[in-house]
Design brief:
The protein has 13 helices and 9 strands. By secondary structure, the protein is an alpha/beta fold. The chain is globular and about 65 Å long. The two termini are 38 Å apart.
Length: 321
């Protein structure tokens, strides 16, 4: 037997005894985005809380590139022993359609361990943009579609998905301007170089509070406690409009049930941790209810979101490869 084959067999052979002793060494949590971004921040807060019940350090590893698919592929290839995890947002579900040649099957390559948080986005514009309400914005876009510019952080980014959903709802195409991150978008929005965007509340709370940008709506079913006067998109004129940036933790396919349970229990415990709740609130998000931090609920969410976004992305004809 070749050495590579032996190594592969050993990597994937996780005995019941090993699972029972899990974890007996540090765990790596792969973040498929850059350090300092929203997903990285959520990962570090979550890992710090999970460590308390697991009794082992969780090391954050940023594996950046290709809209999060490089980090995802790293975990899909990892040994299913519970020592390499993935934390990802809604982009994992959309990548299944955005990328026509993924090195893994999104529906089967991972074991969903539990949802962590679900954050709203806000529809915002430069401070001097003419529309003052979402209804006015809708009318303005329909009348001036050639003039309106929408900034997003690249294909598969939450901001791009939100913009796609807005254009689909309005059956109107505007000029989209891709960026390499949300930071440059905000700079150009404040500098009046682009008209509008849709971004996570974790990034927009400060500019909205200081009135550096004009806010039109929040993209979830309920209003934000931070901005109780900011209507939901559904309330303000986009009937049925809803998109959130949800995050979940994953293990590679084949991870033993005993290990999955220990990890899921650690996520549930983290969602009940007052320190985690406080740190999440500091970045304008909330932990999910403990009953949603389970493999069953998480898997249902992942599959439903893959199925939801597939026809929207195909209709738009916007692919990342």
């Amino acid at each position: 037997m070749r050495l590579t084959t032996i190594a592969a067999v050993l990597a994937f052979a996780v005995s019941p005894a090993m699972a029972q002793n899990y974890p007996d060494r540090p765990i790596t949590m792969v973040v498929p985005f850059a350090a300092g971004g929203p997903t990285d921040t959520i990962a570090r807060i979550t890992a710090a809380s999970m460590q308390k019940s697991l009794g082992q350090q969780i090391i954050i590893e940023n594996a950046v590139g290709a809209g999060g698919t490089i980090g995802s592929a790293r975990v899909a290839r990892a040994a299913p022993d519970g020592y390499t995890l993935l934390i990802h947002h809604v982009g994992l579900s959309t990548a299944a359609t955005l990328y026509r040649k993924l090195p893994y099957d999104t529906k089967t390559a991972f074991v969903p361990l539990g949802l962590v948080t679900e954050s709203p986005q806000t529809i915002i514009a430069r401070p001097d943009f003419a529309p003052n309400t979402l209804k006015e914005l809708i009318e303005y876009i329909k009348a001036n579609k050639e003039k309106v510019s929408y900034a997003h952080a690249g294909l598969g980014a939450a901001s791009q998905l939100c913009g796609m959903l807005i254009q689909t709802a309005l059956q109107t195409q505007v000029t989209t301007v891709p960026y390499k991150g949300n930071g440059p978008i905000m700079n150009d929005l404040l500098g009046k170089q682009v008209d509008m965007t849709c971004d996570q509340a974790t990034n927009t709370t400060g500019p909205i509070t200081s009135k550096q940008v004009k806010a039109y709506a929040v993209t979830t079913k309920t209003r934000m406690s931070t901005f109780p006067d900011l209507p939901t998109a559904d309330e303000a004129g986009l009937s049925g409009f809803e998109i959130s940036v949800w995050h979940g933790v994953y293990a590679p396919k084949g991870t033993p049930p005993e290990v999955v349970k220990k990890l899921s229990d650690a996520i549930v415990a983290a969602m009940k941790d007052p320190e985690l709740a406080k740190r999440f609130r500091d970045i304008t998000t909330e932990p999910v209810a403990p009953e949603r931090a389970t493999p069953q609920v998480h898997e249902k969410m992942l599959i439903s979101e893959i199925d939801r976004w597939a026809p929207i992305i195909k209709a738009a004809g916007q692919y990342a490869d």
